[in-house]
Histidine--tRNA ligase
Amino acid sequence: MSITGIKGMNDILPQSVATWQFLEQQARAIFSVYGFEEIRVPVVEKTELFCRSIGETTDIVEKEMYSFTDRNDLSLTLRPEGTAPVMRAFIEHRLHNRDALNKLYYLGPMFRYERPQKGRYRQFHQIGAEVIGLDDPRIDAQVLAMLSHYFDAVGISAVSLQINSLGCPKCRPGYRQQLIDFLSQRLDSLCDDCRRRYGSNPLRVLDCKATGCRQATEQAPSVLDHLCPECNDHFSRLQQHLTELQVPYSINPRMVRGLDYYTKTTFEMVTGALGAQNAVAAGGRYDGLIAQLGGPDLPGIGFAMGVERLALLLGEDAIASPSPDLFIAALGEAAARQAFIWLHQLQRAGLQADMDFSGKSLKAQMRRADKLGSRFTLVLGDDELASGQAQLKRMADGQQSPIELDQLTTQLRAALDAAAAASL
Ligand code: HAM
């Protein structure tokens, strides 16, 4: 029996890769406009890093981590997210000494043992960005403006931005207590999970999708009514800046996020197009995290987008794989020998060229050129070899033009430019 892949861990097949590359390239291009630099961190970290940052009582740490002990009895975990590893690297390499403000981005696989369904996988990919060093709400607005710029650039419009503030260690405990008091009157209506969360992580109850929990918490106190003056001011300035930058948003006071490190601003880019998995991107501010991990007391804010969800929204095959610029249909041994050499020269010159290697008929070779979506074809037989001239056929409209074979590269380039200018 053949060996299959692991449930919830997907292969990204060649027909989808162009879409993935497009999503990644756009991120690199846009993030660098905003001054972000890439950072690459390992896929595996010490388990303790995630327990201390994401929080012991979160779903991720309680039940979703891929943890194992290595041959030296060290507990390691496949990273379930990117923020904690990036902060670990930031502290370890003292990046704050390099610059007071660090803007970093990362791309790569993350691992969570969740129940797989559309848009939710056990190995998934994130494109994330983090800004470390400033707590000015203009930074929050800029990060959200960049996120919104990205969605515009890749052409995903079925999303909307929701923002919230979760307060800080000064004001959140008061709110938490109010929420516990409120929930204590309604424990019977909560699901099993939420009855458990009520004691450890009561804010998560607001996020529960179960109808009973939704109804029971309809009148729950709002975190926004309990912000201290500093958090309140930060949140209203963020809103002002978003308006100034014309970034559309709505406020969702029930958005609590599934990771414990957040303070003040939190946000999600949500969609109605992916069923239960409605967050395509999510993030927020984490002003205490770096100090909590043993680093300097620096504020930070960031987000991560789920690449599978972006690809689902865009359409896995939305972007076609690159097709050949030229297909050489060679007839006879001498022509095939010459075509093979020209093919190599064209490829060295950066042109995508292809030919047939199995001695097929002209008709079959042209069918193959068509299937590959080649922009031009060239039929090469004994006559063409002898005269040094051939007909270059533009596949979009069938137009043929003579070409000097000893200037194949330059003349093909000119024909490609002319076709591009005519949008063919
Ligand atoms: P998160 O909300 O856990 O935040 O994940 C961010 C995004 O990753 C989600 O909105 C979703 O698009 C995608 N995602 C999460 N889990 C899965 C899954 N099982 N399958 C497919 N996609 C998934 C974080 O990870 C934070 N580190 C974000 C952040 C960065 N906050 C500050 N900086």
The chain has two domains: 14-171+227-314, 326-416. The pocket of histidyl-adenosine monophosphate is lined by residues 81-83, 112, 114, 119-121, 124, 126, 128, 130, 258-259, 279-284, 302-306, 308-309 (CB under 6 Å). The two ends are 48 Å apart (CA to CA). The chain is about 40% helix and 20% strand.
